[in-house]
Amino acid sequence: MSFYTYIVASRRNGTLYIGSTDNLSRRSWENREKQRPGFTAKYNVSVLVHYEVFETREGAFRRERRMKKWNRAWKLELIERFNPGWVDRAGELV
Question: What is the pTM of this model?
Answer without folding.
Answer: 0.95
